[in-house]
């Protein structure tokens, strides 16, 4: 298996009136071809910014991105056009940026038009019909407007719009967060089927660990712009190493009367992403924090084979 996507010391700092906001602050990871990396963490930890950096919807402050072994950090315009096809993004609410007067058919076909990827009208229609069929959208909704459809169908449109370009890599940003649990399962199943059939590689962003449990091969846990834990999904659920991950996991209900898990309620100050201090960013909320945590930022280090954690005391707690 080959490394498909790699990011190295990736950073995005936003200028704000109060100082530099370190939204993504030196992130490293790799994703193998055909695999899914789940990226989890609370609102504001930098998940969406990270996804947008990778697909070049944000300018990069520092660091590098490699795709299929090539440096794509600052691609020239010609390569950018190719990357636009190969890398796509699915959003929680794709309609905020789409003209509400566009029909389902027009929305799905728009990327083909923008990148001029069809030979004639017949080819254009055929490509859209095929993709609608693949994502389970009936022909009769071709002329419908998104607001006339339920959440599940609307998300199928978002998926079709990304897939119509035949990408290899998709950043999925909270694609099921706005959906009912039963519809969530349908969309997640569809995404898994598409991954298998088309050998897609996913980065799946969510604030909800239970959503990525069954679809991710690896999970990266983010906290205030940093990855604080990275490992295989099974290892994360079996033996979470970072106190923050433990708190996230403790919030997931267990569907068993025999098992109970003590809920860890995070207390204390969330530190600011603006001009962050050189210390553990989680220290203010961590029940295990010691003096060293206030003085020295923990590096992401391998605590057991393949299991990385940024906590000075991961082995002790
Ligand atoms: N364009 C921007 N300008 C300034 N600050 C920004 C911008 N975009 C994001 N931020 C800030 O960067 C930080 C990370 O935001 P981001 O949206 O990436 O987090 P997130 O984990 O995806 O959260 P959510 O799930 O709420 O979207 C936040 O503090 C946010 O306010």
From TrEMBL:
CDD domains in the record: ABC_NikE_OppD_transporters
Annotated ABC transporter domain residues: 5-249
Family matches, as SUPFAM superfamilies: P-loop containing nucleoside triphosphate hydrolases (SSF52540)
GO biological process, one term: transmembrane transport
Highest taxon, organism lineage: Bacteria
Classification via InterPro entries: AAA+_ATPase, ABC_transp_ATP-bind, ABC_transporter-like_ATP-bd, Oligopep_ABC_C, P-loop_NTPase
Keyword check for Disulfide bond: no
Keywords: ATP-binding, Nucleotide-binding, Transport
A GO MF term: ATP hydrolysis activity
Name of one Pfam family that matches: ABC_tran
NCBIfam families: oligo_HPY
Name this polypeptide is given: ATP-binding cassette domain-containing protein
Source organism of the structure: Breznakiella homolactica
């Amino acid at each position: 298996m080959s490394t498909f996507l790699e990011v190295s010391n990736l950073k995005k700092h936003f200028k704000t009136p109060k100082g530099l906001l370190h939204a993504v602050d030196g992130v490293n990871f790799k994703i193998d071809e055909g695999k899914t990396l789940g990226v989890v963490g609370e609102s504001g930890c930098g998940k969406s910014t990270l996804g947008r950096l990778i697909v070049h919807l944000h300018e990069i402050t520092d660091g590098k991105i490699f795709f299929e072994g090539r440096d794509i950090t600052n691609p020239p315009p010609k390569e950018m056009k190719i990357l636009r096809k190969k890398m796509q993004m699915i959003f929680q609410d794709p309609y905020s940026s789409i003209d509400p007067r566009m029909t389902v058919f027009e929305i799905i076909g728009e990327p083909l038009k923008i990148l001029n990827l069809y030979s004639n009208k017949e080819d254009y229609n055929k490509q859209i019909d095929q993709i609608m069929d693949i994502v389970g959208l009936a022909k009769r909704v071709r002329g419908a407007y998104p607001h006339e459809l339920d959440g599940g169908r609307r998300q199928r449109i978002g998926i079709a719009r990304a897939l119509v370009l035949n990408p290899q890599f998709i950043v999925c940003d909270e694609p099921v967060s706005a959906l009912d649990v039963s519809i969530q399962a349908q969309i997640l199943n569809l995404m898994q089927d598409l991954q298998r059939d088309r050998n897609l590689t996913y980065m799946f962003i969510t604030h909800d660990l239970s959503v990525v449990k069954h679809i991710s091969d690896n999970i990266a846990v983010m906290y205030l712009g940093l990855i604080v834990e990275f490992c295989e999904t099974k290892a994360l659920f079996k033996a979470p190493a970072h106190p923050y991950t433990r708190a996230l996991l403790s919030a997931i209900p267990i569907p068993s009367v025999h098992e109970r898990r003590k809920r860890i309620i995070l207390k204390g100050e969330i530190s600011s992403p603006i001009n962050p201090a050189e210390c553990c960013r989680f220290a203010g909320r961590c029940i295990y924090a010691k003096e060293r945590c206030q003085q020295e930022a923990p590096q992401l280090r391998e605590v057991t084979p393949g299991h990385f954690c940024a906590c000075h005391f991961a082995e002790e707690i």
